[in-house]
Protein 1
Amino acid sequence: MRQDPNIHLDRCPHCSVAKPNLSQVCGAETRDSAQRNPRRWIGYSCRTCGGVLLTVARKTDGGWEDIYKIWPSSQVVDDSVPDRAKQFLNQAINSIHAPSGAVMLAASSVDAMLKEIGLSQGNLYSRIKLAAEGHLITNEMAEWAHEVRLDANDQRHADEDAGLPDETDAQRSIEFVMALAQFLFVLPSRVRSGRGK
């Protein structure tokens, strides 16, 4: 992808809106102290959320290469996460602009992960409790999982005493689910792969 006045991404890494309108707002060219390693940095702003992302490209004899790095990068769910849990988590990430839905989808992903590791009896509350008692997750992780569960319940049952979540609340739920996925599936998969080599 070239550093043009507008760049095209599938989703904004800040608000996850599909096909964001990303326009250049700033730029700079830099070199190291020995005048080597020329790079061009361009910042692009999302017209939906106002978030800015930074891109970098290197210069070669033929001109500027394509973008090789973007910050922040979009959240990506690892392929080692089981499909149902992964689908719920991807949908939560992609709907962060609709925080109530994102929170409920995050809780659904937690539920799918616990079912995947063999905890299919009872409800989500009991599955979280069993996961902690069986030392499949830490007590702190269980407490955070319960917070995600309760936040989702507030939205699912339209609890009038509970406030509506904002994007920060949704991001916190997604952050936990990403951490749980790392703990239950991604790290064990990497350990198996590393030991296999």
Note: Strands lie at 6-7, 22-30, 39-46, 52-60, 63-64, 69-71.
Protein 2
Amino acid sequence: MSVQTDVSLNSIHIRSAQKWQQLALGLLCMASISSPQYVWTLLTKPFLERLDVHLPLLQVTFSLLIIFQTFLSPLQGKLIDRFGARRLIGFGTLFTGASWMGAAYSHSLWSLYMLYGVVGGIGTGIVYIGIVGQVVRWFPAQRGFAAGMVAAGYGMGAIVTTLPISVSLSHYGLTSTLLIFGVGFAALGGLASRGLRDAPSVSSVISHQACVERHYASSQMLKQPLFWLLFFMMACMSTSGLMVTSQLASFAADVGVGQVLIWGMAALPLAMSLDRLTNGLTRPLFGWVSDRIGRENTMFVAFILEAGAMSLWLTFRHDPLLFILLSGVVFLGWGEIFSLFPATLTDTFGSQHAASNYGWLYMSQGVGSILGGPLAALLYQASHGWVPVFSLAIGLDILTALLAIAVLKPWRQRFISR
């Protein structure tokens, strides 16, 4: 009996070490695909000079990247579940690197659309969905924290590359920069993906208070109204956050604080730097909290936090220091959707089809990307003020917080117990 106990404890220790290794590899894979989205703004001016086109036409490239990253995610998740994470995620990282290498030699708008937008979107989508699916399987008792960590890796990975890419563009030009970093992304992501392993199979999936004994395939999950409630809630939060964050520069300029110096730095770039930090920090932070107090309770706290921060942000918008600090709190209350919703989904519908199931839910982020920015711009143009924009965003936050605590929580408890 003692020998069996020692063997069992040793197996548990090995498995525990493996899951942290898998998390680290997932972070590297996420970091290797973050720059196409977050560093695009540095590439717009060089591409405008090369292609001699207007900015709206060039920005279609970025839209294509987001569309193919989000709206193909159900198919990408299904392929990952079918052929295995290591192989597909490896292909995804190579696609992402190849999109930059191909874009280096793009001298027409259509080739840039296809290479940077379509190929890059497919690559980043495969890796994002695949890595989230991996970690929620490896961390059944810490899903919120694990999903938040890799989501933070995607959100904050570009912090490491932004300055080097900026310096490289000024010294070596667009072609060399895209080639060098494209090769680097493919190499980093490809090597990290080689170490990915399938999580041990489990007979049940641990959540905060209950175990799910059934693993739903996507076709079964899509028939459940509970899934569509989650989809609606995530779409609301995505739309709310992007309504305000996408208009940050315009908002700062209109209220007259964008170029005011705070601690020797203009308020707008300082706010953007703080926002990127808090947007990354909130994902593992609130994910960790949700592992302890429950998903819906954490949603209520986080979404009300964003609503309150937005209200104060609008009220004190003419104060440069408060503008910076409150913008950071707004992002702190928004970015956690990328840890709370995948963890809640897997808790509810099981881990066996985690990648393909999250692919369907992740489409709600695409809905928010399409609605958020244009909706805010239309409201601002119609009203010539920011109060209607913030009011709608705050209303969506409060609605989603109430749905989480009053509808989702009891509904999900009944669903799991049944």
Note: Residues 143-193 form the longest helix (51 residues).
Protein 3
Amino acid sequence: MTQTKQILHNERVDFTCEKLVLENGLTLLCAPMPGYAGVHAVYGTNFGSVDRAFTQNGKTVKLPAGIAHFLEHKMFENEEGDAFSLYAATGASANAFTGFDRTCYVFTATQHIPEALDILLSFVSRPYFTKDTVQKEQGIIGQEIKMYDDSADWRMMFALLQSIYHNNPVRDDIAGTVESIAEITPELLYECTDAFYTPGNMVLSAAGNITMEELVAAVERQGLRPAAAPAEKLREPEPESIPRPYHEFTMAVAQPTFGIAFKERPVSPAERFRCDVICDMLTELICGDFTPLFRRLYDEGLINSNFAGEVGSGDDYLCFFFSGETSDPEKVRSELLCEIARLKKEGIAKEDFLLCRNLMYGEAVGDLESIENVATTMAGCEMRGETLFEQLEVLASLTLEDVQQTLEQMLCEERSATVVIRPAQKSKG
């Protein structure tokens, strides 16, 4: 059932993990960590909220927004009951999450590891849907969607994405809408699991007090079979322009929230991870808490400690976000754009680059001390065609010139969009 095991070792940090691809296509990743009592396991599929259409066996299937997240909820139950009850009996703590490009099911345990692995693999690999259970979940997730509607940060992120993308499904809420999830049927869910919840599209990753042999044994107990036919994801073309340069709305917030997003051209899969590392570094060099911009705005009372930048990237999208609470959104936007222009013109200070690179390298090394971070990172990297040590190697070889060159090509004002959430006026009673 197995192929040759690969031993992946990084000399810089003296850390080893193992990789094994089974005959059914499932990729196993294991990082035995001596001295750790616990195990963290991740069972992930390359199926997320942006996957909204595919072909299989000559049939094209279009999916409503939120179906990947809906599946995440439904995969915790079958004819025998719900997985959480079974996990509780073993002492394991379980959860799951859906992102733009993946869905992952996880558990952490210190005992009864084989039993916990059996629960994880059996529920996720053997879906069970009925009309009644789907209708019940539609009500539950509908309430969750309404709850997220009250989150300013969540609303800000998707308002920004909707401002810079015309067609890319990344612009749609991961949970969908009450209207979109109403379109979900058991038949549609089974089509998704047949297409994407198959060994060749999935990764089982574990770290801590565990061996590769234990993972192999768990998979063998389930008898997982490969997919009868591969599925091909379909994507809509996305123009380079942005649909909405400015958007403003009101919510029940204490003070205004400002956000600006920059739409970038996606890079090739081979370049993506290196690009992501550089882009992450750029957000820190522009508005990290050690930068002149952050200190100036903070000292003037225009931002608080939550003001930050982040990067969003996938197979066919790449963008920057900068956001936070501020009493003067227009001033903060102007200062941010001026700082980006200054760094492009004058260049990034070498000492700032070295400080940022060292901080990021230190964080990456520190992550290798956490079984949760190791297992999650191994799974995520594998699903993107990378390895656990990719970030360390990129950071070790990165130069100031690399970062400066990327900055000069990105973060252009003409491909940016601004969103402001203003406090709703209280009615006089």
Note: Residues 6-233 form a domain with the Cytochrome Bc1 Complex; Chain A, domain 1 fold (CATH 3.30.830.10).
